[in-house]
Amino acid sequence: MAEEINYYILFANYTQGLALQELLKSEGLRARIAPTPRAVQGELSCGMSLLVLPEEIDAVRECIARHNAPHHSIVPLPCQIRPGRGRFC
Amino acid sequence: MIYLDNAATTLKKPDCVVAAVTEALCNMGNSSRGTHDSSLKSARAVFAARSSLAKLFNAPGPEQVVFTQNSTEALNMALCGLFCKGDHVITTALEHNSVLRPLYRLEDEGVISLSVVPADRQGRPDYDAFSRLIRPETRAIVCTHASNLTGNVMDLERVGAIAKSHGLLLVVDASQTAGAYPIDMKRMNISVLCFTGHKGLMGPQGTGGMCLARDVRIRPFKVGGSGVQSYSRAHPAEMPTRLEAGTLNGHGIAGLGAGVDYILEKGVDAIHAYEIALAKHFYEGVRDIPGVTVYGDFTNWNRTAVVTLNIGDYDSGAVSDALWEDFGIATRPGAHCAPLMHHALGTAEQGAVRFSFALFNTLDEADAAIAAVKELAQCD
Ligand SMILES: Cc1ncc(COP(=O)(O)O)c(C=O)c1O
């Protein structure tokens, strides 16, 4: 089975993250709030991130670009705990 | 939901707190602004809260209790208002960013120099280092009463005795202990005690403050409306008005006062005993699960009801996320605003998952958390 990848959108603060979640939602794109993984956050510790579906990541990138939506970065990470546990959104 | 993030904020408040805030929202005027019934209601609620807090912490009196938005604001006011150019300050590796960042800023601005008492892999401070680090220009020791990451409690009587014997101020961050662990300002020789209202004191968010020993003077960082001495150019010099400007959060303070009265009635010792029994039960249920690493000093139970762990090399954020999504258990992962503590524990990369218990948690909830950790630790 191919490795399951999670896409995390990282932010400088919660305000950016909540605003982007609203924006994505308004365009029918799904994004679940999750703790930012320590593995990728560096100085951005303690934050929230948005988890988006792999099949929607291109549309999400396009939406972010179109709106010039403030965010830090988008990071793909292999799913560490119980891949496929189906609790995405 | 099983809420085990009480070290961040207590979610469940006593009914009397909710009732006091509701009553205040319906009937409270502006404290210290006028003498009609509504204004006096507010003034009396604020005064009662000061009195209760002074009693809880054995502070010199209600006039030495100053209200702020939270402990971060109190710490900023204290640290920026106590020190002068050239002062040396000692702090510890256990500290939260609400202590570290104000101190780092003062250091970067060239006001103070700073030394840090290190901690070992169990997060225990090196008590001998306090005396070793003292210099002729040392003004103060600034330390937390308990680590928000490990739950380890600082022996404040010991630190207070060191501060007293060297004529130093002792500024304490009691964010994790106020209401949940005994505090005695006089016995511990505390000069300034900073507390937050929304954690162990079970009050609303937006409340907090500091208690000052009688002889401690803090330069006010804000001045303005006080409701008294209005024709004086200068802000009133008398405590507590000296350190309060602008309308207080009366509605919140009414709730905080009710929370403190509730604690006084129950007794801090009884509250601590209950909370620590839950933490102990959880600790004993998880410590031997293969792959689980628990952080902190569990050689005695003079600690707060916090148990922090990791499962294998799982990212702490991912574990906390699974606990929430799959089991409905609310915990806090990551760095917990305590970077030096994570470095001492060796968890700077992985972070850690914190389970924190409070008065309204139950043994069944602790059992459910143990079962969840077991299940997550078993899946590879
Ligand atoms: C040890 C410690 N200090 C300071 C704070 C800051 O508290 P507040 O956010 O209420 O100002 C906290 C809470 O997160 C804490 O745990």
Helix proportion of chain A = 25-40%
| CATH-defined superfamily of chain A | Hypothetical protein rpa1041
CATH architecture annotation of the largest domain in chain B: 3-Layer(aba) Sandwich
The number of distinct β-strands of chain A equals: 4
Order of helices and strands of chain B: EHHEHEHEHEHEEEHHEEHEHEH
How large is the count of helical segments of chain B?
11
Order of neighbouring strands in the sheet with most strands of chain B: 2-8-7-6-5-3-4
Report what the structure shows.
The complex is a heterodimer of chains A (89) and B (380). Chain A has 89 residues and is α+β, with helices and mostly antiparallel strands. Chain A has one domain (5-78): 2-Layer Sandwich (Alpha-Beta Plaits), CATH 3.30.70.1530. Chain A has three helices and four strands. In chain A, strands 2-3-1-4 form a four-stranded antiparallel sheet, covered by helices on one side. In chain A, 25% of the residues are buried. The model of chain A has no long low-confidence stretch (mean pLDDT 84). Chain B is globular. The mean pLDDT of chain B is 96. Helix content of chain B is 38%, strand content 15%. The two termini of chain B are 26 Å apart. Chain B is an alpha/beta fold. Classes of the chains: A alpha+beta (89), B alpha/beta (380). Chains A and B meet through loops of A and α9 of B. The structure holds pyridoxal-5'-phosphate (PLP). Pyridoxal-5'-phosphate binds at residues 70-72, 96, 98, 144, 148, 173, 175-176, 196, 208 of chain B.
